[in-house]
Predict the structure.
Amino acid sequence: MLWVDKHRPKSLADLTHHKTTTARLQSLGQDPASLPHLLFYGPSGAGKKTRITCLLKAIFGNGVERLRLDKCTFQATKSKNVEINMICSNYHIELNPGDAGIYDRQVVQSVIKGMAENKSLNSGGLITGTGAVAAEDESKKSNSAGYKVVVLMDVDKLTRQAQAALRRTMEKYSSTCRLILCCNNQSKVIDPLRSRCLGIRIAAPSHDDICCALKKVAADENITLPDELAIGIARESSRNLRRAMLMLETSRVAAGSTVLRADLQIQKTDWELYISQLVNDVLKEQSPSMLMRAREKLYELLVNCIPASVIIKTLAMELMKNLDDEVKHEVIEAASFYEHRIAMGSKDIFHLEAFLAKFMTIYKKYLNDMFA
């Protein structure tokens, strides 16, 4: 088991940072009957998912930890079925409706309607058989909240039609179903949906918070972690606690010892090194043949499930490290333009390649003007 999962806090009392937010969640957990719909938002790796799980445990008890992975099929159109993976307990369902693509609206409506209209607390009544009967018996004994919970991840990536349908559905079934929404950027969630939820912002942990968490994990794993290395990992992680934990474990494997040196090189992920290599190639040569080779590398990143939005952001940040101030604003403007195109379009490779072509044009013109 990865350390990031092994040492994940199991209850609200175990959370180490954002004390004010933790106290707020504890008060919500102590009065389950008045729990409103919730919207957790904040950057990746800040601890949104962990706090949602801890809140569910405070409301329903240890039963929420007995999870199962279910695959449910929904009829999107007369000729099209969509299969979605859902993580379920006897008290809640967690899913990412964005996995359904353009059919996310049908999935959202079907799941919430199924959860709210069925008495049993098993996957919203979507599962039948002896397992459903056992789940219903246990739920009757231990669920005193009187409702079920649907956890929807990445709601900021839902289409506007799906968000509007979610708003209507949550109003209709608010008496028997609570929604916990989770997203990175709340500005991409429509106002009618945000206004019906209690917003809980989970900010990125500070470098000191990350260092404390790393020290705690190192102590639990009997590892000697120098302060210099902990600070270096915290800075390299971009205030992403999940990433910092993975970096610590990678450093432990690379060192081959329980005593880590202060000057130990912090390991980056393969895809980051791959993008750095791509940036170096583009800076050395700006030509159609270089663009063709860059396209192959972009395809390689996409095939390995690196999101296009992450690729273009990382490309822009790596380019910034090697550019003069005169061209930085043009490159950032181009990156933001094509990031928007990625969000609105369906062919990521087109917009990633267009961004690199635009950068080559900007950089080539800058070099020609400088040496003219």
Q: What stands out?
A: The domain at 18-201 is CATH 3.40.50.300 (Rossmann fold). The chain has 15 helices and seven strands. The beta strands are 38-41, 68-75, 81-88, 92-95, 148-153, 177-183, 198-201.
